[in-house]
């Protein structure tokens, strides 16, 4: 060994490679870190053989902790350090596992406590929970009491017009063409006079012209006409009134003429000068019914209409008097389509 070759001050071994900058050999530095006493170079056990570096394969003298060629750790000390790391990892992993098991155990106990107790015995018989009541309570009907005074006022106006036989204004005010019953009456009249029932209407009209009213009524009754009194009066009116029979009249004009004839038959013969409103009947929905106190008897009754019970309906177009004229014409139309040829 050269006199100026650096050696480890603790064990006297020559310093090689990076050890020269550290000032101690790698083995002594490891011993200091691990708290072990330094071993002198001449205290190596007898017969101890050197260690082969697992990284580069170089042979190293006994007692060295690092390879003299590449500086890699040698043999037992590296194994001891690796074993220490493994033990530490096992300890940490075990601690984590214990913590996880403890957390799960506490969570299980809480969920078990929150779960309702299970019955230990079955009930004597099957029980069924009552079905929930899904029926919605009926909504209260809005009160119509505030409309009753209006119905009384409209009735007074109607009675005044009927007393003066101003049927045109009655239709203008209370049987308007925009109202659905007027449109229905107009459509039926078009079918009877100009539509698919016109041929049958012409034959029956020609048959009944030479007959007296009573004979015409019996002929219609025998053929199965509904309300033969009304059917006879209707056919006679259509033959005589040019506002209905003329082809130069509009469909609305014909309907107004028939409606005026129908209203006249309801109230002619009734003493409306002393008529008084006795009661306004409100069913809660649908038409109001006004009961009149009056004297007299209708000269040409109209089935379905009572002059002492006036029915009022509230429509978007206004207040409308409900009459049975459209129902009567529908019966006549059905009869003409199915009745045998006279």
Descriptors:
342 residues, 12 helices, rod-shaped
Description:
The protein is an alpha+beta fold. The protein folds into two domains: 1-40 and 52-106, no CATH class; 147-338, no CATH class. It contains twelve helices and six strands. The chain has helices spanning 19-22, 26-34, 75-114, 148-163, 167-174, 180-193, 198-208, 213-222, 228-240, 242-245, 251-267, 325-338; strands at 51-52, 59-60, 270-281, 288-296, 309-315, 318-321. The strands form two sheets. It has a four-stranded antiparallel β-sheet with strand order 3-4-5-6, covered by helices on one side. Strand 1 and strand 2 form a beta hairpin. The longest helix has 40 residues, at 75-114.
Chart the SSEs and their pairings.
Layout lengths: L18 H4 L3 H9 L16 E2 L6 E2 L14 H40 L33 H16 L3 H8 L5 H14 L4 H11 L4 H10 L5 H13 L1 H4 L5 H17 L2 E12 L6 E9 L12 E7 L2 E4 L3 H14 L4
Antiparallel strand pairs: 1-2, 3-4, 4-5, 5-6
Helix pairs in contact: 6-11, 6-12, 8-9
């Amino acid at each position: 060994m050269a006199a100026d070759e650096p050696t480890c001050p603790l064990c006297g071994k020559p310093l090689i490679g990076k050890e020269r900058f550290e000032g101690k050999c790698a083995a002594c530095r490891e011993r200091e870190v691990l708290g072990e006493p330094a071993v002198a170079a001449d205290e190596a056990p007898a017969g101890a053989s050197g260690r082969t570096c697992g990284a580069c394969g170089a042979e190293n003298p006994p007692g060295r902790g690092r390879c003299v060629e590449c500086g890699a750790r040698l043999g037992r000390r590296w194994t001891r350090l690796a074993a220490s790391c493994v033990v530490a990892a096992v300890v940490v992993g075990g601690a984590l596992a214990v913590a996880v098991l403890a957390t799960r155990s506490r969570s299980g106990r809480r969920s078990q406590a929150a779960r309702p107790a299970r019955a230990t015995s079955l009930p004597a018989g099957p029980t069924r929970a009552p079905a929930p009541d899904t029926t919605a309570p009926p909504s209260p009907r809005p009160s119509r009491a505030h409309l009753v005074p209006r119905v009384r006022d409209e009735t007074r106006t109607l009675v005044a017009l009927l007393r003066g036989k101003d049927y045109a204004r009655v239709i203008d005010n209370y049987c308007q063409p925009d109202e659905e019953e007027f449109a229905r009456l107009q459509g039926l009249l078009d079918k009877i006079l100009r539509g698919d029932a016109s041929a049958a209407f012409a034959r029956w009209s020609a048959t009944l012209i030479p007959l007296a009213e009573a004979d015409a009524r019996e002929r219609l009754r025998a053929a199965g006409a509904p309300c033969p009194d009304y059917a006879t009066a209707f056919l006679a009116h259509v033959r005589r009134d040019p506002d209905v029979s003329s082809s130069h009249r509009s469909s609305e004009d014909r309907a107004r003429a028939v409606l005026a004839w129908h209203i006249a038959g309801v109230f002619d013969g009734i003493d409306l000068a002393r008529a008084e409103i006795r009661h306004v009947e409100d069913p809660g929905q649908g038409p109001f019914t006004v009961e009149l106190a009056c004297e007299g008897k209708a000269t040409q009754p109209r089935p379905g209409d009572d002059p002492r019970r006036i029915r009022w309906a509230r429509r978007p177009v206004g207040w409308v008097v409900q009459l049975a004229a459209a129902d009567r014409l529908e019966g006549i139309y059905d009869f003409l389509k199915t009745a045998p040829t006279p």
